[in-house]
Amino acid sequence: MPRISHQNLPTGTTFVSAGSTAGWTETAPGSGIFHLTIGALTAGASASTATFVVTVTSPAAAGLSNIVNAASIADDGANGTDPTPANNSSTDTTPSTRRPT
User: Which strands, in side-by-side order, build the sheet including 89-95?
Assistant: First the structure.
């Protein structure tokens, strides 16, 4: 089964399950690593968008200006090896709307 893996909870944030796609689970309490199983996909298919919401801890940490989100996807290998593993991860940088005081 493919799963999306949010590698690490961004520093200075907390996970918000209420605003996120249902099904995200933390691998171990306090680990900051979350998984979402998305189900089977056919070769070349795309998954729908999965939402992972965080809030910035208040007050924001000194110097915090961006939230960096890294995610990856992997399969179970049941149909052979992935022919394009280079497209299995991505990062996104979002400016923080809360500024340190």
Answer: 25-26, 34-37, 3-6, 66-74, 89-95
pLDDT tens string, the chain, 101 residues long: the values are: 555 665 678 778 889 999 998 999 998 998 888 888 877 777 667 666 788 888 888 777 777 788 888 888 877 777 778 788 888 888 888 887 655 55
Q: pTM for the complete prediction? A: 0.72
Reference 4, options 66, 68, 69; nearest CA is: 69
Domain boundaries, the chain: 3-95
Distance CA 57, CA 77 (A): 38
